[in-house]
Amino acid sequence: xxQELLKRITIIPGLMGGKPTxxxxxxxxxxxxxxxxxxxxxxxxxxxxxxxxxxDIKAALLxxxxxxxxxxxxxxx
Length: 77
What we know:
- Strands 1-2 form a two-stranded antiparallel ribbon.
- It has a single domain (2-63), classed as Arc Repressor Mutant, subunit A, CATH 1.10.10.
- Helices cover 48% and strands 5% of the residues.
- Helix 2 (29-37) crosses helix 4 (54-69).
- It is mainly alpha-helical and 77 residues long.
- It has 4 helices and 2 strands, in the order H-E-E-H-H-H.
């Protein structure tokens, strides 16, 4: 299931500066994460952005989790 979700994440040189997007659309993964961080739920996001699908949101979350899992975060004093 994870691999199927991750297929929805595309990185295309020249599209959105090469940042990860959803299914080759001009919709960056970052935007989905920001919408979720504002308190929007999946249904609200899908209503506001009809081009998205439920699995796009799941894919964005999985992608972010995998990236964070491979990232060291340094806290500056």
